[in-house]
Amino acid sequence: MRPDDILAALDPEQREVAEAVRGPVCVLAGAGTGKTRAITHRIAHAVRNGVVDAQGVLAVTFTTRAAGELRQRLRQLGAPGVQARTFHAAALRQLTYFWPRVIGGDPPRVIESKLPLLVDACRSLRKNHERSELRDIASEIEWAKVTQIGPEDYAEAAKKAGRTSPVPAEEVSRLYEMYETLRRDRHLVDFETILELTAAVMTEHREVAGEIRRQYRYFVVDEYQDVNPLQKLLLDTWLGGRDDLCVVGDPNQTIYSFTGATPRYLTGFSVEYPNATVIKLVRDYRSTPQVVSLANRVLDRARTPHKLALIAQRPDGPEPVFAEYDDETAEAEGVARAVRKLVTGGVPTREIAVLFRVNAQSEAYEQAFSKAGLPYVLRGADRFFERPEVRQAVVLLRGAARSAEPGDTLALTVHHILSGIGLTPEPPGGGKAREKWESLKALADLAEDLAAAGADLPAFVAELERRASEQHAPPVEGVTLASLHAAKGLEWDAVFLVGVTEGMLPIIYAETPEQIEEERRLLYVGVTRARAHLGVSWALARSPGGRRSRKPSRFLDGLTGRATQRSRTPAAADRRVVAAPISCRVCGKTLMAAAEQKLGRCAACPADYDEALLEALKAWRTGVSKKEKLPQWAVFTDVTLQAIAERAPVSEQDLLAIAGIGRVKLERYGEAVLELCRSTAHHTEGA
């Protein structure tokens, strides 16, 4: 790839970023505007033109997955030597390397959770707290540490910052002090201490600072609106007075102030660096004009500087749907119906998300989706590769890879191993069993995809280990249920923002103007997760029959006349706009079972299908199964074949409308299935 080729596919503003190869540079990048594309092309362009060696670049981001994505894109652009890491990973690497030389002995052990130490701190102080209280206390300690506040100053600082302590502030101070004492005595470090010690070692040992600064002279920091004072301290220490720095962020997506993050480093960048180049990215390639318009209007009344009004680049899509319900149960069931309608229309469940303000809101949707037979995935629970069933599967697959024989079929081997620990042809009803099944199914689907690309079992295991190190989970087939905070950085074809009421969004404890504005930005983040379909809903009461005293969020005022009308009258006709239940095409009865919904009729109702087509489909499946050495259900289940025979699809869109047929199976088998349907229909007409 020639240097000019790197710039060829960029829009004018992205190209301006890529060509600004010397810092300081500040990129204000709105949602969906291709910021990762811009900064990776900037790095690759600088490397290919000899501005900097790849080994001299340190690209810093906030999640392991984002760092992995940066590395992958840079490899594709011809810059494989660039270091892309999180703040903590970069600091820990440096600290571990220099520790024996400047301090001596073994480096301290890293703890991933503060809870065990806090339990011991409580025991030492003869205190007894619930686990939920300990989690909140841990959050307060993290806030104090990233804002450089010691135990002795916590109470006063928390009061000044308007923080609500889970227990009296003086008690948090004592627990914080004891936690730090135990941590030091046991030679442990937490994530905040890693950053503190790295900055301290560089400050106190000039030779360490010199070596690190000779290694890294070109810095890029993603999501700069989320930087906290401790991370800024480390970044300044790395820079050592230099200004070859490019920062990227969106002040409209500042939603982590409660953790100590502050957008002032981003919005004040040109003050800190008066000669900085400031570039705005506002062309939105993610969302339709209808979604972009709503996102812009959400921020119309915001007091946020640099609002970055987005300009949509995609074709038109459906208008956002606003719906009001009598209670939370009705809202969850209405959303489930809307999801079912999208799935029937060809939207994969993994491309649909339901987003809420707090995790406690997920329960109603878990119940509604289980009742409707819709698979779902809870985001923000266990990390995929830390789930017990996934860890067990990886161990078994790793063992099988060591003894694999040439010619072993990847998909068949993986299915055989996963079947032994719980993967069945059809999913269980719900709950933990369903979650386990979805995890194993995701591994099986990934194996099928890699097998189609020619991978063998050792290559599959290597890919799993790479993904685990980068927290890059395979797509799980199911609707994502997640909080608005957990959804940041993600996107889906369809998004439902639920529970958008006063007291929930904005949350009831958001009192100051700054806190209210952050809640408004949360709604903006939610809206901009949607590519095409967007639903916004709220319920007037918590429970069926309850007092209907809730009001739609103030953030919806002026967004749509219908929203204002619904806040006064819960018109049933408006609610039906979300979706209709799936009814049997024979008798009209509402279908509840997943298999019946897939067929579009009750199991007891007479089937209307071409028997010759069903037999042809089964014979074709047998042949594919033998050729690919897969169990027949792994090609298509009996229910899916029955649904195909009954609906006789004539296009790819018709096929996608059948549950159980996604993009992967469409690409692999779609043409053959459609040809069978056409040839059987022609034969029948001729007869």
From TrEMBL:
Enumerate the spans annotated as UvrD-like helicase C-terminal domain: 289-596
Q: What Gene3D superfamilies does its record include? A: 1.10.10.160, HRDC domain, P-loop containing nucleotide triphosphate hydrolases, PCRA, domain 4
Per the database record, which ranges form the UvrD-like helicase ATP-binding domain? 8-288
Give the family, as the similarity comment puts it: Belongs to the helicase family. UvrD subfamily.
- EC number(s) for this protein? 5.6.2.4
- Which enzyme class? isomerase
**Which PROSITE patterns does this chain map to?**
HRDC, UVRD_HELICASE_ATP_BIND, UVRD_HELICASE_CTER
List the residue ranges of the region (Disordered): 543-570
Which annotated residues bind ATP?
Answer: A29, G30, A31, G32, T33, G34, K35, T36
Which superkingdom is the protein from? Answer: Bacteria
Could you list this entry's UniProt keywords, alphabetically sorted.
ATP-binding, Helicase, Hydrolase, Isomerase, Nucleotide-binding
Positions of the HRDC domain: 607-687
PANTHER family to which the protein is assigned, alphabetical:
ATP-DEPENDENT DNA HELICASE UVRD2 (PTHR11070:SF69), UVRD / RECB / PCRA DNA HELICASE FAMILY MEMBER (PTHR11070)
Q: Which GO terms describe its molecular function?
A: helicase activity
Organism listed in the record: Streptosporangium amethystogenes subsp. fukuiense
The chemistry this enzyme catalyses reads:
Couples ATP hydrolysis with the unwinding of duplex DNA by translocating in the 3'-5' direction; ATP + H2O = ADP + phosphate + H(+)
Q: Which taxonomic lineage does the organism of this UniProt entry have? A: Bacteria, Bacillati, Actinomycetota, Actinomycetes, Streptosporangiales
What protein name applies here? DNA 3'-5' helicase
